[in-house]
Amino acid sequence: MLREFALGFGDREIKISLPPEQIINIVEGKPVAAITDVPAAVIAALSNPIGSPPLQTVIKSGDKVAIIASDITRQWVRHDQFLPTLLNELNAVGIPDRDIKLIVALGAHRHHTAAENILVYGQEVVSRIQIAQSHAPAKEDFVYVGKTSRGVETYLNKHAVAADKVILTGGIVYHLMAGFGGGRKAIIPGISGYATIQGNHSFCLHDVVGQGISPRCGAGKLDCNNMHEDMTEMAAMLNPAFLLNAVFTPEGKFARFVAGHWQTAWLEGCRTVESIFGVPVNSQADLVIASAGGFPKDINLYQGAKAIDNAFAAAKENGVIILLLECRDIMEPPDFSGWFNYESLRDREIALRQGFTVPGFVALKCGLTAKKLPLIAVTLPENKAFLKKAGMIAVTTAEEALTIAAEKLGRKNYTITVMPHAANTVPLVQTNA
């Protein structure tokens, strides 16, 4: 008797029936209770910090405080839900609102509008404190603070450097280059100058031109990750006084707040992320069937690339991946889709080395993955031409995808891993199994 799976595809589900004896892994995140009283959870984290004295001990009356906060591209962090509590706690230790400045960690992203500041941080925060936007190309807003051991000259936003105390905020998730988001990423790329961002992000590429991306940079990888280690050196130059980061449930609600030392507390948060979204699997499979999780996670290939990356980790070297990606906005965003116009992957890589962008990196990684393994995408009919250009095999039904997969594998007794929410879950292959 076949086992049926209902996998997300846009706003609907696609049903796939599979032989249960061939299924070796079902990769799902760990259920976790959501925080019901956010202010209380924030106060508890601030009062019981990790690797640091409590906030009220670290911050002294008379300090000028800078809070670094993520921009609108990280709206899911929901700063508006916890920043008012942080401001109140600062007030309680003698720091009035006039001595607090929020720095928007734009990196190289565009400026916020006034309405977007309200959307991301809430009307209360916008009304209470000063807001400065850190925009990497604005050279006059950055000051030199040193050079990393890898030779990257580090320029950080002048408002952060001038502050007596800096507090990092943000959310921790898996990150396809830096291992994990949050923590030191508030500083680099968040409040770093453009040349500094380019220098740091270049470590995501292979040391040898033409070899693509660095194998040391990937989701969950911190050890020997040059990009992460370089970021950590840059953060140490600023030496933030405190950190408040959020970890989320699979549904996107607050699961935990970690607070304290900018590195120690963040690492504890990373371990929590791994416990929720890192899924141990006994072995890699011949066939991985992965859904990003439906809309909006599969709104376009740029978003769907997270599922590709995670599915690749679950597949054998000579395996096949089936992806359920509706991609209703297949050509969005333009700064991603345009990277597929290069004649070859080498051309794409050379262009990326000349001017690094995260969408360009994702496009290069997609292309390199498609070169290593067949990527069969169940998608909308109108997406076929674009996905072919991206190196993928586009089909419109799961049945067609399974037929092609069996042909590619050349046998019927192949092993299968199913990933119903592949955009969020990272398979952790147990090497000692």
From TrEMBL:
One of its GO terms (molecular function) is lactate racemase activity. It comes from the Bacteria. Residues 283-422 form the Lactate racemase C-terminal domain. Transmembrane segments: none annotated. Residues 9-205 form the LarA-like N-terminal domain. Coiled coil: none annotated. It holds the Pfam family Lar_N. InterPro entries: LarA-like, LarA-like_C, LarA-like_N, LarA_C, Ni_dep_LarA. This is Uncharacterized protein. It comes from Methylomusa anaerophila.
